[in-house]
Amino acid sequence: MQRYPMTPEGHASLEAELKQLKTVERPRITTAIAEAREHGDLKENAEYHAAREQQGLCEARIRDIEAKLGGAQVINPATLPKEGRVVFGVTVLLENLDTGEEKRYKIVGDDEADFKVGKISVNSPIARGLIGKSEGDEAKIQTPSGMVEFEILEVLYE
Questions:
Q1: Backbone angles phi, psi at 120, to 5 degrees
Q2: Tell me: the pLDDT tens digits for 28-79?
Q3: What is the CATH number that goes with domain 77-156?
Q4: How buried is 33 (Cβ within 10 angstroms: 0-12 exposed, 13-18 middle, 19+ buried)?
């Protein structure tokens, strides 16, 4: 079985999405299909076909979330030993050694990643280049804009 690392917040978010899909979206789509059926000929009924497509997407997402929750490995960074090492779930303060710019990233699971708010996937090039390193270490990371060298200023176990 595949394991899916996630933070407690990411796990709670997936559980909330699953509940929303099962208790709100699924019944809404079922009602839409029933209403579309009442309009007659299903071959040329765009509302029916759209509702069936929505149903397929909803059911696929439910299966996806259930699989991820079933294989979830919830890691709470607050309970990890605070050794200054970069591991899943920590927040890292970095300095770009070329520009002097400081960046702050939290390393999270794939479903939690949102680069705009500083949450990067554990599978991203930046996270892979940082995992295992410690405060004070330098990391050369290949990014879409080229090779970037960072210094790890601080590792936070929030």
A1: -115, 145
A2: 999 999 888 887 777 777 888 899 999 999 999 999 999 999 999 999 988 8
A3: 3.10.50.30
A4: middle
